[in-house]
Amino acid sequence: MRPPTVTFLGGVREIGGNKILLEDGPDRILFDFGPSFSPRTEEFYVNYLKPRSTSPVKDLLEFDLLPRIEGLYSREALADADLSYRAPEVHALFVSHAHADHAGHLSLVDPEIPVFVGRGTRRLLHAIETTTPSMRYGDHAWKVFEDRQPIRVGRLEVIPYPVDHSIPFAYGFVVRTSEGTVAYTGDFRHHGPRAADSRAFVEAVAAERPAALIIEGTRAGPDRRADHTEEGVQRGIDRLLEPTRSLALACTYPRDVDRLRTLYLAALAADRELLVSTRTAYLLTEVAPFLPDGTLPVRGAARGVSVYARKKKRVFTWEEPLLDGALDSTEVRERGGRYLLALDLLHFPELIDLRPPAGSPFVHSMSEPFTEDDVDDRVLHNWLDHFGLRFHQLHSSGHASGPELLEIVRRIHATVVYPIHTEHPEAFGGTGPGARSPELGQPYPIGVPGAAPSR
């Protein structure tokens, strides 16, 4: 019988798009299933130019933006694609975390395939669907796993370990096959509030003496980003808020609850109130029960946090309870020095009504764009320049730094190392002869040192 294999169906020499197929005899499981952030995707689909809702798989297969695998996609998603529908031939799909590049294509998957997620991730996915009409994950046989508790799928045993990342409820996985252990890091870091979880995962993996390590390498290779911690970000915001009494603004991902907590603590320290959108307020309320009490600034439960009521023609049902006592642009403009307003790029038209004084601080607390000519970056600076706002970049990455990644590889000492979710797999070459840049769609045997791809 042939040895178990791992096949990389996405995430190869690109950021995002992880799709990892593990096979052991008749048993097949998939880890993550989301779109890529690579420039190739934007060669065909960008902004409002999307695959047709009536034939999403067909439209993505046209440009090789999805793996051509039978027994994976739903009959509805396939529509009239040139890939035939077959009953499920993948027996489980595990989601490492709720970022779009790991979960954004779940709606295409056959609903009969069980989808395994952490308890908090399941609630987070529900909150995202509720507040973001364009994001749908589909109907599935959802299975909620518990931290560090094994899940058996035929011959394969999967153990989920919590790790630290820029979204809560992120996981790495230890997978025991018939020929050795495979470890998959998902996306992780060693410098965030849950760094101890990441370190515990690395130690658990090292103890397994794995046959293969699949490691994310977002920050491998050239990387200009400073390796700030959340505490460092807060200190930077504290310094900006201390000398000014005008309205302060910040832009961050609404699902980065660690950053929202950092903004909240900085607002309290400056005797300000944190203002968030209805969407952010809803998400914080939904996920707070899955984190230690007092971790998140939940409206109505924590002092110094309120909802900003932007102008809208339509109010959704889920928003209605959050708008009771919400603050509008008139209140915020007249008493701006009392507030730190967290908004995102889509909310920038509010600046026309808010009219913050020239020189007011604007904290960009997100990753730097991957390219110098990033369109959102240009548009952002056009708005800031128009209103004379002072731009400050203060961010703590959701990913381990290049040196940290190399040290982790050396610590685990796996037989073979597969760098994915990276544009620079060659950066791992110095970690030893086991480092291998995988090829897309090639099955690699597990437990066969130095083996070439299976054919």
Written overview of the protein:
There is one protein chain. 25% of the residues lie in helices and 20% in strands. With 455 residues, it is α/β, with parallel strands linked by helices. It has 2 domains: 5-222 and 398-445, Metallo-beta-lactamase, Chain A; 230-393, Rossmann fold (3-Layer(aba) Sandwich), CATH 3.40.50. The protein has a 7-stranded mixed sheet with strand order 6-5-4-3-2-1-19. Strand 8 (156-163) and strand 9 (170-177) form a beta hairpin. The two termini are 15 Å apart.
For the record, the CATH architecture of the largest domain stands as 4-Layer Sandwich
- Given helix and strand content, the structural type is alpha/beta
Q: Give the neighbour order of strands across the main sheet.
A: 6-5-4-3-2-1-19
Distance between the termini: 15 Å
Uncertain regions spanning at least 5 consecutive residues: 368-374
Mean pLDDT: 92
Q: Radius of gyration over alpha carbons?
A: 23 Å
How many distinct domains? 2
In brief:
The protein is an alpha/beta fold and 455 residues long. It has helices at residues 39-42, 56-61, 75-78, 100-103, 119-131, 195-208, 230-241, 257-269, 278-287, 329-334, 351-354, 375-387, 402-412; strands spanning 5-10, 19-24, 27-31, 92-94, 114-118, 141-145, 151-153, 156-163, 170-177, 180-184, 212-216, 248-251, 273-276, 305-307, 339-343, 361-364, 390-393, 416-420, 443-445. The strands form three sheets. A seven-stranded mixed β-sheet has the order 6-5-4-3-2-1-19.
